[in-house]
Amino acid sequence: MGGMETNISRRNLIKGGAAFAAAATLLGASACSPRKDAENAPAAKSDLPADLRASDFKYSVVETDPITSFASEETYDIVVVGAGCAGVPAVLTAVEEGATVACLQKEATVAANGNGCSFVVKEASNLSGIARWRSDWAKLSDWRINPALFQYYVDYAEEAVPWVISRGIEEGITPIEFLTDSSIRYDDGSLVAVCDATQESNQSLMVALANRAEQNGAKFYYETPCVQLVQSEDGTVTGAIGKTKDGKYIKLNASKAVILAAGDYMNNDSMVDRNLHDSFMYPRVLENHTGDGHILGILAGGRIAPLGHARQIHSNYIGPFMFFPFLALSLEGKRFCNETVGMSSLNIPMSYTTKPEDAGRHFRLFDSKTEGFYPSSLGIPPVALVGEGSAWMDPEIVVSGNTLEELCENAGIPVDEGVASIKRYNEMCAQGRDDDFGVPGSHLVAMDTPPYYCIKGDVGMSAINAGVMVDDRYRVIDEDSNPIPGLYAAGVDAGNPCGGINWSMPGGFSNSHIFTAGRYTVIHALTGDMKPKNPSGFDDLKEYFAGEDGSYMWESPDCATAISVW
Ligand SMILES: Cc1cc2nc3c(=O)[nH]c(=O)nc-3n(C[C@H](O)[C@H](O)[C@H](O)COP(=O)(O)OP(=O)(O)OC[C@H]3O[C@@H](n4cnc5c(N)ncnc54)[C@H](O)[C@@H]3O)c2cc1C
């Protein structure tokens, strides 16, 4: 997984504004005068499904009172709810497949996050390699990962992710990094070939793809959240209702399917309190992610994924820094964890020892050693990765000092407590064993070479990766596990691929299953099959992924032999 991107930067807001202003052509959209619709009859609030509470609606825009009067009505093949990492690929796919499509979007522009994505090259892998790799990840979540959704990623991300990347390149957005280092050759000859790509920002990528879709006939309704689905008496979902800024309702009929792609529910305190009771410990990275897609899906007869709802944890230090086990101190200047814990689980030890009001803040320390350091994934010491121009570290969050006292002073660590903790840590390094937290001697690196550095660390919840239950085609399923006709979900509001407490999945899996489900729900809804009209694949990008010598890591004797947990 890659690093942090803010949700809607000013630059992206401007781009999004331009997208909104761009002329859109309506393909086959039929505008109608207001009318009443007897088929739209959602459950009354007193009659809520077991997976919902009345308090959920305090935070969500979804409405339960039947909406029967519309300012306009239009008909499309596909209606997408949400213009993020799943919704935008869904819209662009519909356009490429020759379908008519409209998207209801809550915000004034596209709003997407993240930057990493990945896929397996099946032809270069063997079956046992893929199976062993899946098992390695499954073990980390107590075997709770959903094998069908993992297989969906293996089978279709191989086409969908290169398709997203290629369309981005055609729009002038090329990933900043292409790697094959996550490939693994196991001791028994099992092999999995994995490609990772990192975008500068998914936000700008999705804005570009949305512009492309709009120029080719897709219709985006910004600042028009979906507040209700339309369902016929037999349960088929036949459309979605958006609410405009001035409070008018527009009805979008979907002749093939509605795709829910409305993101997670981290800002719906009622849902969070029910499903992630410990999340008060660390900040939520996003705003306005209120579980609308979950609620719409449940009201249509779906059910929420059983616990656990895996939370994705990001720190503000990324890339190789995620793998350094450097000294960690709390705001009080005390050591609080075994520093080999990965970024994705740092919230757990923090929840035992730090205070809720610390809100994920902590310190990570290292010195200026250039030898004898714990090697980074790039094979260079941390000191070489800080400073102006570093791709991995925002200079504003790093401070330095020529003495331990000066470092603590500059970083805002209580000096007496901080210096005592560092000295105690150095004693553990000197004896080559850690009496306090059990860090292996090989991973202990003393703070003894000035100048010393401190990262003012932050850790927060960037996504809750669990949504409404779906089948192996991402159709929303009901209590009896039957698909609800006309309704798919894609993105973090779909299914429960991980099932663990924290998200421990292959790097980029989240964005990739999101892109993939966005694209393939539409293909499945339109064709009943999983074959895109204009397929892409690894071959389109193989030059980008090749190393300097033209080869890939899965061919190299240096290929990794085990997964790296970050
Ligand atoms: C800072 C950060 C970094 C991340 N980095 C990575 C990474 O590197 N790799 C990775 O794999 N994953 C990463 N993730 C996790 C995840 O992949 C992203 O959050 C991703 O954007 C989720 O995609 P999505 O389409 O499911 O939801 P979103 O991208 O959040 O899109 C949902 C959209 O629906 C809209 N919406 C919500 N409600 C409604 C409604 N009622 N009607 C209409 N529209 C609505 C929202 O405005 C939003 O635009 C990161 C997450 C964050 C926050």
From TrEMBL:
Which GO biological process annotations does it have? steroid metabolic process
Q: Which Pfam families match?
A: FAD_binding_2 (PF00890)
Cofactor(s), by name: FAD
Please report the stretch or stretches of sequence annotated as the FAD-dependent oxidoreductase 2 FAD-binding domain. 77-502
Alphabetized, the UniProt keywords read: FAD, Flavoprotein, Oxidoreductase
- One GO MF term: steroid dehydrogenase activity, acting on the CH-CH group of donors
Signal peptide residues are none
Q: Which PANTHER family did the record assign?
A: 3-OXOSTEROID 1-DEHYDROGENASE, FUMARATE REDUCTASE
Q: What name appears for this protein in its UniProt entry?
A: FAD-binding dehydrogenase
Q: Which organism is it from?
A: Slackia isoflavoniconvertens
